[in-house]
């Protein structure tokens, strides 16, 4: 499933393609949304927001399209009416005179009045979004100490979208590694220094992943490994997807475990 940084990058592409110009045609796969074609055709898109793994396309006539990519959803931006060759099923198409923004495979799509967006079941419960809101390390620390979260294991907590929006499987492993926190620990088990590191790592790694297209490893080290001929999959992360390989800090083999029904990677010595 794409995580927050990937959704924000997709939103940037969609926004660049369709912002400002009137919608010449809009198409929905789902019968329940067909009547919105007339409402949205001719309107202009003001901006494209994200909230975690959800995208919010804002129109200038008071409507918003909410979509969630779920596991298989994917956006394509193409020249107008130039559809890609794919086995995926088209769910939403927004066309103007120059570009088309096409959403395939996702089934979670709704059209809302602007005033309804904040009450949407996903939007209303999701936590702070580092890429679309001003979120400080101190604010995250307050969440770490708060009653709903401080006695829950980090391994499941970081996947809970009500905790922090947009964090998924690779960011979970990377944040815990940089913060030197063992996956079985809870915020209440951690030192103040670990919690500060976790807050700072959450913000910095989400932003870095967005800016670099998914690289969470030290950027200079990643570039050095790239010049040595390593593939992107080999230099991209600190620990994620590196089972059995040497930790980049102390050489200990990276371990993989199942946590919250998903694979998690960590260094047993850096994350005692």
Q: Mind summarizing the main beta sheet?
A: 4 strands, antiparallel
Write down the Rg.
Answer: 20 Å
What's the N-to-C terminus distance? 29 Å
Q: Taking strands numbered 1, 2, ... along the chain, how are they ordered across the largest sheet?
A: 1-6-7-5
Gross morphology:
globular
Overall mean pLDDT: 96
Q: How many individual β-strands?
A: 10
Structural class: alpha+beta
Q: Uncertain runs with pLDDT below 50, 5 residues or more?
A: none
> Beta-strand level of the residues, as a percent range?
15-25%
Number of helices: 9
How would you portray this structure in words?
This protein is of the alpha+beta class. It contains nine helices and ten strands. The protein has helices at residues 4-18, 36-40, 121-125, 137-145, 154-157, 169-178, 192-212, 219-227, 232-235; strands spanning 25-28, 45-51, 54-59, 63-68, 74-79, 90-95, 99-104, 108-113, 255-259, 262-266. The strands form three sheets. A four-stranded antiparallel beta sheet has the order 1-6-7-5, with helices on one face. The protein has a four-stranded antiparallel beta sheet with strand order 2-3-4-8, with helices on one face. 38% of the residues are buried.
């Amino acid at each position: 499933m794409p995580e927050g940084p990937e959704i924000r990058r997709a939103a940037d592409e969609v926004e660049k393609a369709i912002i400002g110009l009137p919608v010449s045609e809009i198409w929905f796969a789902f019968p329940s949304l067909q009547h919105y074609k007339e409402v949205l055709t001719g309107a202009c898109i003001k901006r494209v927001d994200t909230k975690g793994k959800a995208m919010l396309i804002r129109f200038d006539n008071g409507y918003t399209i909410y979509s969630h990519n779920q596991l298989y959803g994917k956006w394509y931006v193409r020249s107008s009416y130039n559809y890609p060759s794919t086995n995926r099923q088209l769910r939403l198409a927004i066309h103007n005179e120059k570009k088309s923004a096409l959403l395939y495979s996702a089934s979670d799509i709704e059209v809302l009045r602007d005033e309804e967006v904040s009450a949407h079941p996903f939007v209303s419960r999701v936590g702070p979004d580092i890429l679309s809101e001003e979120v400080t390390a101190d604010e995250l620390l307050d969440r770490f100490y708060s009653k709903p979260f401080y006695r829950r294991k980090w391994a499941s907590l970081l996947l809970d979208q009500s905790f922090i929006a947009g964090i998924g499987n690779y960011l979970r492993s990377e944040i815990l590694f940089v913060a030197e926190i063992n996956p079985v620990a809870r915020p209440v088990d951690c030192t103040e220094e670990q919690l500060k590191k976790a807050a700072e790592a959450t913000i910095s790694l989400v932003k870095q992943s967005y800016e670099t297209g998914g690289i969470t490893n030290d950027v200079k080290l990643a570039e050095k490994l790239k010049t040595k001929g390593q593939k992107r999959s080999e230099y991209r992360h600190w620990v994620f997807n590196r089972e059995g390989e040497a930790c980049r800090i102390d050489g200990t083999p990276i371990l993989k475990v199942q946590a919250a029904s998903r694979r998690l990677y960590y260094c047993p010595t850096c994350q005692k």
